[in-house]
Each structure stands twice: as C-alpha cells, then as structure tokens.
UniProtKB/TrEMBL annotation:
It comes from the Eukaryota. InterPro entries: Tobamovirus_resist_UPF0261, UPF0261_C, UPF0261_N. PANTHER family: UPF0261 DOMAIN PROTEIN (AFU_ORTHOLOGUE AFUA_1G10120) (PTHR31862). This is Related to UPF0261 protein SACE_5696.
Length: 462
C-alpha cells in the first residue's frame, strides 16, 4: 500500500453497524488520490466473520477484516483460538489494529488516521490514535457524536482533530450526515496529501529532524505570559526556538510526551500550576507524571513556580462544597470562603482559589518529589541531566506580588521551605544532590530580571 504518489489514510471503524459510511469514505478518498487501509473493528459475530464481506476496496488499498485481525492476534499469542466474549474481542481487536497499523507506521507508510462513530467507536479509535507509535504531527481525525461533551479523555496528550457529526453515524447516509462526512473527508484528504508531500521533501533533502533550530519547551499560563514572552525573545537571540505549552492539563501532558519523543534540547518549566490542580482536585490537572519526563530522559531543565498560587475551577457556582463562600454585600470578583481562603472570579467560566501557606509547602515538597521520580526513572547507569529550580521571591504570577490581587509573602516562603526541605531529605543520594539545585531570585516571575536569570541558568546547564 505504500506509495510515493498517493497518501495512505487508515480508517478505523465498526463495519457491522456503519458500513455505509465507511464504504462512502473509502470510495471518496480513493477517487481523490488516496490509498485507504480499512480496519474493521466489528465485535458482533467477529470470530465467525463480519459485515464487511461485500465491502469494495480499490487497487492499492486494503481491508483488514475483523476475523483476520483476530486470527492474526491469536497466532501471535501462542496460537490460542480467537476470543468470543465481546470485551475480550474488543481488547484483541485493539491490540491487532495497533500491531498492523504500527507496522505500517514503522515503514513510513501512514499519512493520516481517521474514524467516524459514536461513543464506542470513538473510544476505540482514539485509544489507537493516542498510542506513542503515532507521533505528534501525524494527522488524526475523529468525526463523532461525542464532540459536544468533555473530550479530554479521547484526546489525551495527542493532536487528534475532533469534529461533531451533527447527525448520528448509524449505518445510513442522509443529506446532513453526507455533508458533514464529506467535509471531514476533505479535511482528512488535505492533511494526508500535505503529510505525504512533507515526507517526500524530507527524503529528498535528507534533512530529517535537523532542519530547525534547537527547540526549547516552555510552560506558560495567562498569568506568566509576560515572563514567557521575555524568555522566548532572549532564547531566539541565542539561536534557540522556543515552543510554549499552555498549562491547562492537556498542555502539560503534551509537553511531557514531546519531551519523551526527543523533540527538545532543554526545558524551561516556568509554569507548574498543574501540580495545584492535581493535588487539590482542580480542573486542569496534567496527571501524576507531570514534571518527570525531562529528568527521566536526561534533558536539562530549569523549573520555576509559575501560578502555584492558584487552583483552577470552572464557574463560581461550580466550586466544590468545601469552598463555602462568606456572604457579602460587596460586589467584585474577589470572594472569601468561611475558612478565609481567597476566591477570585476570573471570568464567568474560570474561578481561582488562592493556595494557602500549608498547601504551598506541600506543593514545594511534591514538586521536588516529581523531579526525583524522573531522575530515578532514568536509572543509576545513565548520567542525570542538571535541574535548576528558580524561585522568584517577589511573586509567582501576575496575581501574586505587590501589584497583584493576592500578594502573599508567607505563602511564597512556605513554598520555598517545602522545596528546600524536600531537597535536604533527598540529599542522601549523591546523584540527586548534584542534579537538583534551588536558586532564589529577589524578583517577580514576570520581570525582565527573572527572565534573564532563567535564560542565563539554562545556558549554563546546557
């Protein structure tokens, strides 16, 4: 199926219930210069056969029938019989699709992965698209009935394009679903052709991954944007290309993934606010592995404390019950809980809770623990990369400091105490002691002085 002139689009779907849509898509894509690999993920009567018996496939394309996928999966697993229970069938099909599609990707043959369906098909297909075998930059497209809800579980840290199907994808086409499907296919075809052209250009020039300046990852938030912009300008002057990631949970996970995939020569984790949401049930957690990838993969990094002064929630009305607000006749965005915590209504959909001194101390300890976890994952047989924690003592966000809405020097001191205490606790290991060091600066995180200090420190450890 690999071709130098026609891109390959992999379609993943349940042909037992949606064959009409997948036949339409296959024909449409083939007519517009694409080869197609169709992976039938049918679970209904899949061991005996699937509804794909009459499926038409063109020259240069291929249909992977569910029965054949299951038989191939079984032959790779000690020649056991294909499973019959539906959940086991689905798991086996997922493994088989990953194996076959992964083989195509390893050959450099895949130019896009796409799927159309409801909740089951969306969960199945996006679990494959998120796999590390299919890197950021490989087009991935999901036309789904589930696009109107929370799609974060489908996206993970990947770059999946999700489009609402409007009408149900249920095995028949009508004026509405045909239109949305054609629009989706036009996008998929365009991305696939562009991806193929990019692959061919790289092959001809033999540039590979060296056709750009060294990349440096930077984490940012609205309240640290000023600092990130200054740091980015300084990096560009030094010949580096900064890549910013918005610390919204998915942003942090994506940055960690790209670090693992070897995109960056260094990391400036200026904005570690996702740790707050992970520890205190905010809405922007990046999960339990945040702040581990760079250390685990030996990438030098400068870490700071950006926006560790806030836990992120949705609208004011969505605050958890533990944040019971004091009633007040005063109008404005600032509120207080009955326990004295500051609550700031940033806008109608974003509410921020100021972290207390005790929470900041815990955050400092946790931050160091995450870095140590990364160092331990690297292993003692590999050299650890240097890590510098820069603490801006005059404020850690646009909201914190003398010009902010909740200046809290005691909380900042507690944050530093937590960091230093954790470093002392882990200093018994010589490698950890030499690898992770803390540097304090009497400046604000968004100040020019701190931006210069961050870049100077990074250049030293690189």
């Amino acid at each position: 199926m690999s071709s130098d002139t026609r891109p390959l689009v992999a379609l993943i779907g349940t042909l037992d219930t949606k064959q009409t849509e997948y036949q339409f898509a296959t024909t449409w894509l083939q007519d517009r210069g694409c080869n197609v690999a169709v992976f039938d993920a049918s679970t209904r009567d899949a061991p005996e056969g699937s509804a794909s018996g009459s499926f038409e496939i063109g020259t240069g394309s291929k249909l992977y029938r569910a029965k054949e996928l299951l038989e191939g999966h079984s032959s790779r697993g000690r020649h056991q019989s294909p499973p019959t229970e539906r959940d086991a069938v689905r798991d086996a099909l997922q493994s088989a699709c990953l194996h076959e599609l992964g083989e195509l990707q390893a050959q450099g043959a895949v130019d896009a992965i796409a799927s159309f369906g409801g909740s089951q098909n969306t969960a199945f297909a996006t679990s494959i698209m998120r796999d590390s075998r299919f890197p950021i930059g490989l087009p991935k497209f999901m036309l789904t009935t589930m696009a109107s809800g929370d799609v974060s579980e489908y996206l993970g840290e990947s770059d999946i394009c999700i489009m609402p199907s409007v009408g149900d994808i249920s095995g028949s086409l009508n004026a509405i679903t045909r239109t949305t499907l054609q629009n989706a296919l036009a996008a998929i075809s365009g991305m696939a052709h562009t991806h193929l052209a990019s692959r061919r250009a790289h092959t001809k020039s033999e540039l590979g991954q060296k056709d750009h300046k060294p990349l440096v990852a930077i984490s940012m938030f609205g309240v640290t944007t000023v600092g990130v912009n200054q740091i980015s300008d300084l990096l560009k002057d030094k010949g580096y290309e900064p890549v910013a990631f918005h610390a919204t949970g998915s942003g942090g996970r994506t940055m960690e993934r790209l670090i693992r995939e070897g995109f960056f020569c260094a990391v400036i984790d200026l904005t570690t606010t996702e740790l707050c949401d992970h520890l205190y049930d905010g809405v922007l957690s990046a999960g339990p592995d945040r702040l581990t990838a760079a250390a685990a993969y030996g990438i030098p990094q400068v870490v700071s404390l950006g926006a560790l002064d806030m836990i992120n929630f949705g609208s004011l009305a969505s605050l958890p019950s533990r944040y019971e607000l004091e009633k007040s006749s005063e109008k404005g965005p600032m509120h207080h809980t009955k326990d004295g915590a500051q609550v700031y209504e940033h806008n109608s959909q974003v509410t921020l809770v100021r972290t207390s001194s005790d929470q900041c101390r815990e955050l400092g300890t946790f931050l160091v623990g995450q870095l140590v976890k990364g160092v331990e994952r690297r292993g003692r047989d590999k050299e650890a990369a240097p890590i510098r924690i820069l603490s801006p003592q005059a404020g850690i966000s646009a909201m914190d400091g003398t010009d902010g809405v909740w200046d809290n020097p005691e909380a900042r001191d507690a944050l530093l105490d937590g960091i230093q205490g954790a470093l002392q606790e882990h200093a018994a290991s010589r490698d950890k002691k030499n690898t992770i060091q803390v540097v304090t600066k009497d400046s604000h995180i968004n100040s020019p002085e701190f931006a210069q200090a961050v870049v100077d420190e990074l250049l030293r450890i690189i």
